[in-house]
Amino acid sequence: MENKELQQITEQISQNDFNRPFNDRIIFNPRLRTTGGRYIPTRRIIEINKKYYTELGRDELVGIIKHELCHYHLHIEGKPFHHRSAEFKKLLSQTNAPRFCERLPSEASQSTLIYQCGQCGMKYNRKRKLNTERYRCGKCRGEIFFIEKD
Questions:
Q1: Which position among 68, 77, 102, 107 bears the catalytic label?
Q2: Is there a catalytic annotation at residue 60?
Q3: What is the tens place of the pLDDT at every residue in 28-40?
């Protein structure tokens, strides 16, 4: 799928689900890594992570587009368009758009490192290695030890 086809799909979803036209641009951004998409209000452009389309398919892509269109249309109307606003949550439910996108299968397969506090027993799950000489437990300030790789 190319940006031209993505633009057509978005215009169609906007007209069918929101009853409003989408007059701006939507593109695939290959630099997005941790999110399915984002709306940039200053440029009035929507960027989509192409990995979600390639790994999870068209249905997930449509959900991400709907989510970003909620941000877009609320911004155009001058209403609060952030995740925490009541208007945003209401528009999500009206259009049956997801609040969060699913986790990518390629990202889910990464292993987790488990650390534990020596004093209170608090466990920490991390994706990246933690320098146990530098950091302490956030609960009791105790020393943290590496337990296992999950």
A1: 68
A2: no
A3: 999 998 899 999 9
